[in-house]
Amino acid sequence: MKKLLAASAFAALMFASPAHAASLIGDTVTCSQVGAGSSYSCLSSSAVVGGGLEFAVGPAPSSAIGLNFNGGGLRITNLSGGALVLTQTVITLSNLSHAFSDFRLLNSSIGGFDASDIQLQNGVLRLNFIGTVWASNSTANIALDTTSAVPEPGTWAMMLLGLGAMGAAMRTRRKQKVTVKFA
What we know:
The protein is an alpha+beta fold and 183 residues long. The chain is built from two helices and 13 strands. The protein has two domains: 2-18 and 151-171; 28-148.
């Protein structure tokens, strides 16, 4: 019985870790242009991820690049209808609901844009479009993982279950009698 309780407690504590968000839908994300010299910037500074384009990037008021978040990632598209050459554009994206924790570039048809042009630091995703060449149908797809800032209720329940099982195991532990025999 003690071993079963101890194993249950250990398993509960092992699985009680920060939860990964299953979807970006409903998260609030901010967009900003970094550095000087670019005429391309985010035409809106924040958006709630949902159905449709969250951010347009370009020389105001026209949009040239679309940033569309979906359930698990980001799709970057050329909205201009023609070829683009970007020389100074760097965009940062921050998820205010759940911090970005990891990314994978799934594919890119944007000339000069690869995984080395994407950085993630302190939950902020940085997209470096300096020196990129875009055909009219250029796209890139990035898979994103996020980490919840506050553990989910299921995580708390597993942790409390584990602590309760450990306490029960310690409480029911029998005291062994020590017998001393003298010769």
